[in-house]
Amino acid sequence: MSIVETTPLLLRLVEERGVPVVESGLASGLTLLFLPNHERQHLETADIAVILPDLVGICRKILADRLVIEPAIASAAFEARLVGEIEGLTLPALVVMQGNQPVGSIARMRDWADYLARFEAILAPLIVSH
């Protein structure tokens, strides 16, 4: 059984909000990818799951309809691959992906102002390049 199936808040994201669980690569475009820490249960996983829709909303406001961003949850295998690729990444984490390329990450639970500042820093270069 996966962490998504055993964590009610993650399951709710999938079943009620239609957030996909991504097994490997992503299509083109932007994705706010949630890495919930499949290796072991973490207290912050549920906290991030609760606010994930709001965090996607923050990203959409920053992007101001210039680019589209969608949420997704990484499978255990995809999460392990990204942890190996992104130096110093701790879990749980959010990774902004442009297609299959990570462009920025935010590890662990943060306060709202910190999320806003970090997402602005990650997304601003993407807005300029489009």
Characterization of this structure:
- By secondary structure, this protein is an alpha/beta fold.
- The protein has one domain (3-124): Glutaredoxin, CATH 3.40.30.
- Helices cover 48% and strands 21% of the residues.
- The protein is built from five helices and five strands.
- It has helices at residues 3-6, 8-17, 43-63, 76-85, 112-129; strands at residues 21-22, 30-35, 69-74, 93-98, 101-107.
- The chain has a five-stranded mixed β-sheet.
- α3 (43-63) crosses α5.
- The longest helix is centred in the middle third of the chain and has 21 residues, at 43-63.
- The termini are far apart.
- The relative contact order is 0.20.
- The mean pLDDT is 91.
The CATH superfamily turns out to be: Glutaredoxin
Helix content: 40-55%
Helix/strand-derived class? alpha/beta
User: How much strand?
Assistant: 15-25%
CATH architecture, by name, is: 3-Layer(aba) Sandwich
The strands making up the biggest β-sheet line up spatially as 1-3-2-4-5
CATH topology: Glutaredoxin
Write down the domain tally. Answer: 1
- Quantity of strands, as a count: 5
Query: Quick check: average pLDDT?
Result: 91
Report how far apart the termini are.
41 Å
Tally of helical segments: 5
Shape: globular
Rg calculated over all Cα atoms: 14 Å
Low-pLDDT stretches: none
- Give the class-level CATH name: Alpha Beta
Order of helices and strands: HHEEHEHEEH
Largest sheet: 5 strands, mixed
Question: What is the strand and helix layout of this fold?
Answer:
Layout: H1 3-6, H2 8-17, E1 21-22, E2 30-35, H3 43-63, E3 69-74, H4 76-85, E4 93-98, E5 101-107, H5 112-129
Parallel strand pairs: 1-3, 2-3
Antiparallel strand pairs: 2-4, 4-5
Helix pairs in contact: 3-5
